[in-house]
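Hey Z.,

So I finally got round to the S-adenosyl-L-homocysteine thing we talked about over coffee. Here's the setup:
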Amino acid sequence: MTKKLFVKTYGCQMNVHDGERMAELLAGQGYEATDKAEEADMVLLNTCHIREKAAEKVYSDIGRLKPLRAAKPDLRIAVAGCVAQAEGEEILARAPIVDLVVGPQSYHTLPALMARVDAGEKVVETEFPAEDKFAHLPPRKLRAPTAFLTVQEGCDKFCAFCVVPYTRGAEVSRPAQRILTEARGLVEQGVREITLLGQNVNAWHGAEGGLAALVRDLAGIDGLDRIRYTTSHPNDMDDALIAAHGEEPKLMPFLHLPVQSGSDRILKAMNRKHRAEDYLRLVERLRAAQPDLVLSSDFIVGFPGETEEDFQATLALIEAVGFGSAFSFTYSPRPGTPAAERTGVPEPEAHDRLLRLQALITRQQRETQKAMVGRILPVLFEKPGRMPGQMTGKSGHLMAVAVTAPDDLRGQIRPVRVTAALTNSLGGELAS
Ligand code: SAH
Ligand code: SF4
Ligand code: F3S
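And the result:
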């Protein structure tokens, strides 16, 4: 008899990808995915620790599982992801109905861990084994024309606010050959676009030449048409990678490049090891290599010590760059990080800055979208759109484009004339 698995994932793309891999692994154990927690035999909460709100969500989720567990005593409850890594045993103490806690570096051992749970044990596994967990996972089964491929994990940067170096461990790069083999396998299954994933993806050093060389090697795979990578750190954008944005047509003209702040004083306090000016010069060089590049970023406002003047410097940086989109957050103190010891900006003030920053970003996002109207852009079609007879896909700039088109265009790249710019998407028509 097949059992049902319900997975709920929070956090970054890496975590989303981990969630998919865990579901694939458990499929081999007879667990079929369901999107209804009520019918599940196992619930897997794949958690994020990056901000307090995200981290606390797991406990309210577990609370909501209590009636389910009461009705179905055999229900398995597992907590994975970065809260699992950060809190380990504490989770069992705070939420005794949890059966299994498994960190992001050890989930490839889930079948063995589940066997221990089945034998009546409460299990906590938060080791950082030296092996490549991906080598222990079943081959991917994909139905979409786009896929993630993890090339690097962990972070050695230790930004003063960030838990990632603690939850994901030290930087590790997967070897180029494994990545290329996995990429070829994905392309054989119909994948046309691969997004290389890493907490610090451009620090990848799995072979001579760094990420630029890997991108070039991947570009040599027939049938793979689009390459992206995320998330990058400004200090790891080397000359070769910048040049690749101009030279490698398969490398898409979109880059997520978090800067966090535009104030040198705050960047220093954040331990970012770059100044605002360094970021602006970098953007200039990237745009010289690829004039069509659309940039996005991450910002934290209300970091301890941030004055209105510091915040104005952030707005000035945003004005100077012109972003296509951005994620922005008020600072959230995280246990164990250096900044957690410092006094933050009062919440109402931080919130006010966030709204002002977001208003500016929204304006820039609209301008970027509007500038696409009238252009003919290649779109990779992914799925039916919201309206009948519609298909949606992504432009090279990672913008959603909805087009009246037959559904057999799924997985194909076609030129689209952009006719309308909506808030979060573009509208267009097939150009040929
Ligand atoms: N590796 C990436 C992203 C890590 S987390 C990078 O280097 O940029 C994603 C984003 O969450 C960060 O870029 C940052 O803007 C935000 N973030 C991280 N820690 C935070 C904290 N303590 N409070 C608020 N936002 C935070
Ligand atoms: Fe966190 Fe900084 Fe590492 Fe990004 S570079 S994951 S923000 S410590
Ligand atoms: Fe969250 Fe962990 Fe990703 S803390 S953002 S799930 S690396």
